[in-house]
Design brief:
13 helices, 320 residues, TIM Barrel
C-alpha cells in the first residue's frame, strides 16, 4: 500500500489506494433507506424519560458539550469568559459538571488554554481553512501542525466538499490522512463533513466511511455556518456508519452533531438515538459530543427546574 494508514483501518480498504479504488470502495457502501431512517427517528423522538433519568441525561449532555465560539468578532476576553463558563457552567451549583471542551479559532487557542488550565476541559480548534475547506493541502497541514504545536488537544477539520462531490476521493482521503498524521498522539481529529452540502443520505454515509477509513477519531456533521446543520436523521445515518465501521474493523469512532441543537429536549433526543443505535459504550464524552453555543443555557435552566421546581430566568446565566 502506497499510503500509511493504520492497519486496523486498512483492513477495510482496497490493497492499492487510488481514486478509482476508493470510488469502488464507496460504491460498495450500502445505500440508505431514507424512509426507514426518518421513520425510526420519528419513533425514537417520542420516547420520554423519568425525572431522575432526565436529570442524569442533562448532566451527561453538559459533560458532552464542546462550548463553541467561531465568530470574526471573537476576542481574548470573550474566549476567556466562555472558557471560565466551560469549567464552571453554574457557579452556584457544584453538582453541574464541566463541559468536555471549548472550540475556538486557531488564534484564540493560547487564551483558551490559559483559561482552562488545571481543569478537565480540553481545547479544540478548527483548522484546514474552516469553514470552506478550499485551500491547498500543504497549507491545511501546515495550519494544523501549528495549532497542534500551540497545545490544542483536539482538531476539528473540514473536508473539501467540492472535491468529494466531484469524485476526487483520493484527494479528500489523503488530506484527512495527512492531517491525522500531524495530529500524532497529541490531538484527536474530528472530521467535519458539512452534511448540509452533501445532498443525500447516501453521500453522507459514503463521506462518513471515507473519513473513518482515512483516520478520523470523530466524524462531525457541520460547521454551523451552513443550513441545514445537524439533524436527527443525518446523525442516525452517521451513527449507523460508525456501527458498520466498528463491526468491520473493531475501531471505535466518535460522533459530534453540531449546529442547530439549542434545547434540552433536542439534546435528549440525540442521546436516545445514540443509545439505541450504538449502545452504552458510546454514551460518554470520549465518544460523543455536542457542538454547542446556545444549548448550555437551556440545559442549565432545565437542571435548575428539576432541582428546585422553579424556572430560572434565562438572563441568570451568562450568554456566550
Amino acid at each position: 500500500m502506497a499510503l500509511a494508514v493504520a492497519p486496523d483501518r486498512a483492513a477495510l480498504l482496497p490493497e492499492r489506494i487510488t481514486n478509482a479504488s476508493l470510488a469502488g470502495f464507496l460504491r460498495s457502501v450500502p445505500s440508505t433507506d431514507e424512509v426507514g431512517v426518518e421513520e425510526r427517528v420519528a419513533s425514537l423522538s417520542t420516547r420520554s424519560i423519568k425525572k431522575d433519568s432526565k436529570s442524569e441525561a442533562l448532566r451527561l449532555a453538559v459533560r458532552m458539550m464542546d462550548l463553541t465560539t467561531l465568530e470574526g468578532k471573537d476576542t481574548p476576553g470573550k474566549v476567556a469568559q466562555m472558557s471560565a463558563k466551560a469549567v464552571r457552567p453554574d457557579p452556584t451549583d457544584p453538582s453541574v459538571p464541566s463541559v468536555a471542551a471549548v472550540c475556538v479559532y486557531p488564534a484564540m487557542v493560547p487564551y483558551a488554554l490559559e483559561a482552562v488550565a488545571g481543569s478537565s476541559v480540553k481545547v479544540a480548534s478548527v483548522a484546514t481553512y474552516f469553514p470552506s475547506g478550499q485551500l491547498d493541502t500543504k497549507l491545511k497541514v501546515t495550519e494544523t501542525s501549528r495549532v497542534v504545536e500551540m497545545g490544542a488537544h483536539e482538531i476539528d477539520m473540514v473536508i473539501d466538499r467540492g472535491a468529494f462531490l466531484s469524485g476526487e476521493y483520493f484527494r479528500v482521503f489523503d488530506e484527512i490522512r495527512r492531517v491525522r498524521e500531524v495530529c500524532g498522539d497529541q490531538a484527536h481529529l474530528k472530521v467535519i463533513l458539512e452534511t448540509g452540502e452533501l445532498g443525500s443520505y447516501d453521500q453522507v454515509r459514503r463521506a462518513s466511511m471515507l473519513a473513518m477509513a482515512a483516520g478520523a477519531d470523530f466524524i462531525k456533521t457541520s460547521t454551523g455556518k451552513v443550513q441545514p446543520a445537524a439533524t436527527l436523521p443525518v446523525t442516525l445515518v452517521m451513527l449507523e456508519a460508525i456501527r458498520d465501521f466498528y463491526l468491520a474493523t473493531g475501531v471505535q469512532v466518535g460522533m459530534k452533531p453540531a449546529g442547530g441543537i439549542r434545547t434540552s429536549k433536542d439534546a435528549i433526543r440525540y442521546l436516545v438515538v445514540l443509545n439505541e443505535t450504538l449502545g452504552s459504550a458510546w454514551m460518554t464524552p470520549d465518544w460523543f459530543r455536542f457542538g454547542a453555543s446556545t444549548l448550555l443555557n437551556d440545559v442549565l435552566m432545565q437542571i435548575r427546574w428539576l432541582k428546585t421546581g422553579r424556572y430560572q430566568s434565562a438572563d441568570y446565566f451568562t450568554k456566550d
